[in-house]
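QA checklist item 7 of 12: single-chain prediction sanity check.
[x] sequence parsed
[x] length recorded as 465
[x] structure emitted
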Amino acid sequence: MSRPPLEVADLIRAAGTAFYEGSQKWFTWLHLKILTATVCCRTSTLGGHIDQCSRCGHRAISFHSCRNRHCPKCQSNARDRWLEARRRELLPVPYAHVVFTWLGQLAPLALQNKSEIYSLLFRASAETLLTVASDERHLGAEIGFFSVLHSWNQKLLHHPHVHCVVPAGGLSPDHTRWIAARSGFFLPVRVLSRVFRGKFVAGLRELHATGKLGFHGALAGLAAPVAFAAVLRSLFRAEWVVYAKRPFGGAEHALRYLGCYTHRVAISNHRLVALEDGEVVFRWRDSAHHNKKRLMRLALDEFLRRFFLHVLPPGFVRIRHFGVLGPPAPCEVAPLVLRAAGRNGRIATGHQQARARYFAITLDLPTVRRPDGDCREIHRRRSAIARSSTSKPTTMTCSLTSRTHLARRRQHSDCVGSPHRPRPARCLRHQPPPDKRQDPVHCFRRASACIQIPPLNVPAGIQNP
């Protein structure tokens, strides 16, 4: 994919300190940390390393990324790993795509209590699916699924909602058979919306009674029980929206759709078009008119304000698993699904499949060193083959506790690390010769200390907190 002509970091630099000074009423240390990380991402400020081709000697400078989950340029590798892990966990059954959202009048309260309200949204939506699915009048089964939180719409406005990817079926109450949903139908949407409204409002009432909600500014009057009870009554009078459909192309399509948002926040750099006369032009999809792509213009300060609306609380988990597929998942789920599909046999989990493929490749490849004494290329080759191998459920045929396999794995653990442990920062076996230790190619320090790179001009006042 080509490099976008404009990035969010460029917009922050263009706004300068004027945006920071005009937003101090709501700008916190967390916003400042994200702003600084986005500006410094993949620049000389964070350092880097030099990549050199072993054949032609060509060198290229690669700057380090900030790895902040709110940065539009980061988390691509984490997203790919997450998608691959979810593909390995897909069951050979149809899947449903269910979306839970709330009324817009709750947005101000959610912005002041993100951790509590977002957690309640996860909990209420999960309990709704589990309760309705366990009812004999609808499905009568124990289901499992994963949920992803989104807090924005295409216009970058605050619109929290939860996407749930659910297998269209579940285990019987006695865990002896798989109960499949009717073809083309999963659960009644009207029932889901009513149950979800009741559970969410009950959760709000409990949070208010226990004093876990904060009310500031214009919402200070809601701290009184009478005023808050009036708001809850108004929530019951409105219809809540729950959207459910089978994803086009199966569960793979839902994973690709969610993959664009799981490890990104608000907007990607590829949607930015231009910065003209202090206004940001970006693309958005109009779902009300058959997803037609349109252009929107926003003032620079307003664009950045909307971008920072979607900052998540520190440590908040926005991808969660529930039901029989949640942690800890019962090991009898996969055999029941295979038996229901007419295929008997033992199925390995995603983690076991990855280890089995790695050790099987270890037996096929010789443990020899290259002429220069570096054995990392063999590990890269094994890992690449393991990632590209088929991820379909297979019966495991090799012993994971074989002494031969483990001994062969330990043979190179000091120099290449293991698939489940990060590579050491420095390997004694691969220390460069004394005459090359000062060469930037063999230096493990930051590129800013190895080569002369002009520093990034960060506006005054925008520094690390």
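[x] summary fact logged: Residues 341-379, 389-465 have pLDDT under 50 and may be disordered.
[ ] second reviewer sign-off
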